[in-house]
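FW: tagging you since you asked about this chain on Friday. Here's the raw sequence from the shared folder, copied in full. Didn't touch anything.
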Amino acid sequence: MELALVAGPLLALAGATLFGWFCVRLSGVYLAMLTLALAQIAWSVAFQWDRVTGGSNGLIGVWPSSWLASKSAYYFLTLIFSLAGMTFLWKAAYSPFGYALRAGRDSPLRADAIGIDVRVVQWTAFAVAGAAAGVAGALYAFSKGSISPETLSVSRSVDALVMVLLGGVQTLTGAAWGAALFTWLEDSVSRSIDYWRAALGAVVLLLVLVFPQGIAGAAKRWPFSR
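HL: got it, structure written out here
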């Protein structure tokens, strides 16, 4: 397990660096379509490479080491990793790199004019995001005891996007709040309603309409937060 927690982020970093090299050359809807296409390629490789990934069955029997066998111990390990990751991203967002990234997002032409290599900055952000996803993926696999190609499907990417929209775009804690709310809704709705996917979609749509800036964005506008 210890080796996997180290190798997972490194391999994800390498994959994100490779994919990011292609993605940063596009923008807008073309960038979104390319990322979805690359995600589909990754899913196809995982689904068909039986010898390495287990194919459609995935990898089973992936359990934590003995010193993390209890649920509480693994929970605190995941909490520590999550807090460390959010702290790192917080520091990065308010560093010169973070401001350069925002400049490239808001006005790429002006950023390029003052000497910022927008593509390199975005490529670096792509790699950092991939490493963070690698940490999350390694922790997820050991928490479930198994991992399957379904985790790489496009629908899972849509779930992540919904989590971000629920929590709040352009906020660091918004994704965490959105993930907690989405997971709770999915768990509670699926237990009580037969057509739970349709009901979940309706609830998510309602929340997005009521809180267009997400939970974190709405919290900033509340009187007690000022």
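FW: DSSP finds eleven helices and two strands in the chain.
HL: agreed, and Residues 153-226 form one domain.
FW: great, closing this out.
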